Amino acid sequence: MGILSRASYIIRSKVNAVLNRAENPQETLDYSYEQLRDQLQDVKQGIADLTTQKKRLEIQKRRLEENVEKHNEQAREAVRQNRDDLARKALEKKKQKMNQIEGLEDQIAELQRQQDQLVEKKNTLQSRIEEFRTKKETMKARYEAAEASAKVSEAMTGAGDEFEDVGRAIERAEEETEEMEARSQAMDELQESGAFDDVLSDKDEIDRELEQLSTDSSVDAELETLKGEMGRGSSNGDSASADAESESDVDTAEVEADAGSSGGSGGSSSSGGSGKGGSGDVSTDGESSDVDVDVEEEVSQGEVEAELEELKEDEK
After folding, report:
1. Whether 20 and 151 share a structural domain
2. Per the domain annotation, does 181 fall within a domain?
3. pTM above 0.85, yes or no
4. Is 71 exposed, middle or buried (0-12, 13-18, 19+ CB in 10 A)?
């Protein structure tokens, strides 16, 4: 097979495949039915033409028959007039007309035979057309039922072209939705990590870190101030209680000194001794008061530390 032959064969096969896909059985059946009806119409037209020709020959035959009768009368009249020569001419013309009539009768008979054949073919073709029309309608009904069943089956199984497009649209929508969700989560994560600068603020990441450090420093300073205030309050309370105790001891010593002096001279030496002893007692009481203040300051400092630890736990 040559190149041109192969190319022609491939082209014809491709065209045939395209035509098969584009062919609609219902339209094909309707077209075939119309073609048969056209053929029937052509047969009827042929019968009509043939009948017309036959009628023309019959008309011509009648005219010849009239001429024959006319020539027959002429011959009789010539015989009555003793004109045998005219009678002979009339009979000759009569004979010619009779021969023509015989030829026309043969033609008319042939046309009649053809007409009968065409009428018979027309009746056969018409019967076949009626049968084809019935079969065509049956085939169309079967095709429509099969097409409807196929569409229902495709709709139930989702195998049709329309449902394939719908399935692809759903898949694309799911992919886009997942893409948008992933993008939203990524943007939230980057925003929380500070990877993106805030478009509404002119602060960058360094400014925010410095601001956080400043805030932490101010909180630490305030905490130290709070610790100092609570420590000084405890120390002042302990000092006030120690002073009150020392003053009460001094007042007691003075009362005892006055009682000794009012008791006599003998009592003055003893009172002097008592005074000395009293002053010694005052000194001793003052030292003991200082020790008590130190102990109370240590206790109050421990309480402050404990309270500070509780505050830290509460803050956590």
Report:
1. yes
2. no
3. no
4. buried
71's CB contacts (< 8 A; 6+ apart) are 90, 91, 93, 94, 97
Q: How far apart are CA 294 and CA 292, in angstroms?
A: 5
pLDDT digits (tens, 9 = 90+) for 212-234: 777 878 888 888 888 888 876 55
Q: Which residue has the tokens 């033409």?
A: 49
| Residue 270 domain boundaries | 211-315
Q: Provide the 10 A C-beta neighbour count for residue 30.
A: 13
pLDDT digits (tens, 9 = 90+) for 106-130: 999 998 998 898 899 889 988 989 9
The Cα 117–Cα 8 span in angstroms is 44
Give 287's DSSP letter. H
Last residue of a domain, one of 161, 182, 201: 161
- Of 133, 11, 107, 314, nearest to 125 by C-alpha is 133
Distance CA 77, CA 212 (A): 155
Together in a domain, 8 and 151: yes
Cα maximum dimension of the chain: 240
